[in-house]
Specification:
Blueprint (H helix, E strand, L loop, with lengths): L30 H14 L1 H5 L1 H17 L3 E5 L4 E5 L6 H8 L5 H9 L5 E5 L7 H8 L4 E5 L6 H10 L5 E4 L2 E2 L4 E6 L19 E7 L1 H7 L7 E4 L5 H6 L2 H6 L3 E6 L1 H6 L6 H8 L2 E7 L2 E4 L7 E7 L4
Parallel strand pairs: 3-4, 3-9, 4-5, 6-8, 9-10
Antiparallel strand pairs: 1-2, 7-8, 10-13, 11-12, 11-13
Helix pairs in contact: 3-4
Length: 313
């Protein structure tokens, strides 16, 4: 594993409910400002830098598909998988269609931290953009456990697992949290923003879901080890980790997790609770940019972080 030392000082962009733009910060009411915001986001993406015309043509194609309500099945040749995408302009389907393997740099990075026969846990699996590559990487002797509580997204996750004939993946329609129980999942402007914490600007709709701790879920699944965990749960990452105490202390898995301080606020949690918990457990932190891995001494403004226990370095 190759690491490039040094701080990466960058404001990491997030997907906005309104399209290709960061979700944090004050709303941009001016059409020109909104356009500039989306353009700045595009310029930051590796897929766009490598093939700008192809990316733009895909975005135009996706816009047309959304207007015609026509879904798509795309190929991700890096892992020999296919993925069904619903025709939704808001949310991750558009970004996956446009960027494919370059949707997030951590997806390609899985090849460096995951190998055949290992166990991968996808928390907040959505359509399966991490689940599908991980399944191919760990192979027939490995296991993938995918957790997605939303009734909007879970059927699409199951569809993509079936589409690829994956027999080493088990999908669970539950949310991982600190303990077993029931909770209310608030629905955001698009399914990828669904959260246990409610943004006051959202409508009041949602659904009751089951919650489970990772430690308990692994015990029930008779899985006694975990090598890599990916978490994207809209600010509830700290709750997931608190329900994974035995896993963290025994297996010390590599953890890819999202930092989104705004989401933690809606849950009454510390803005960087997940980072602080992992730091106290002996983890060090890195960010993946342009194929390189940089040490992160302090939490970035947003985006994904890779946490690796000191004993693994």
């Amino acid at each position: 594993m190759h690491f490039v030392d040094g701080e990466l000082q960058a404001n990491l962009a997030r997907e906005s409910p309104e399209g290709l733009s960061p979700a944090s910060g004050p709303p941009m009411h001016s059409p020109l400002k909104r356009l500039k915001e989306k353009w700045d986001y595009l310029k930051m993406q590796q897929g766009f830098r490598q093939a700008p015309l192809l990316t733009l043509s895909r975005l135009l194609s996706w816009r047309a598909r959304c207007l015609l309500e026509e879904p798509a099945i795309i190929s991700l040749p890096e892992w020999n998988v296919r993925m069904f995408l619903p025709p939704e302009w808001r949310g991750i389907a558009k970004l996956v269609f446009a960027f494919r393997e370059d949707y997030e740099p951590e997806i390609v990075y899985l090849d460096k931290i995951l190998s055949a026969g290992q166990v991968f846990v996808d928390v907040g699996a959505n359509f399966g953009i991490y689940t599908l590559p991980a399944s191919k990487i760990v192979g027939g002797t490995g296991h993938v456990l995918a957790f997605e509580p939303s009734a909007q997204s879970f059927p699409l996750l199951a569809k993509n697992i079936a589409l690829n004939g994956l027999t080493n993946v088990r999908a669970f329609p539950v949310a991982l949290a600190q303990k077993s129980g029931r909770a209310w999942l608030h629905r955001g402007p698009n399914p990828s923003l669904n959260s246990l914490g409610k943004d006051p600007s959202w409508k009041g709709d949602g659904e009751e879901i089951a919650t489970e701790s990772l430690d308990q879920a692994l015990q029930q699944a008779r899985i006694d080890r975990v090598d890599v965990i990916k978490m994207d749960v809209q600010g509830a990452e700290e709750l997931v980790l608190r329900g994974a105490y035995n896993t963290l202390t025994s297996a010390r898995p590599v953890i890819i997790f999202e930092i989104w301080p705004e989401g933690t606020t809606f849950l009454g949690l510390s803005p960087h609770g997940a980072w602080e918990l992992l730091d106290s457990a002996g983890y060090e932190f890195f960010v993946v940019r342009r194929g390189e891995v940089y040490t992160a001494k302090t939490p970035p403004a947003g985006g994904n972080v890779v946490a690796i226990h000191k004993q693994r370095l």
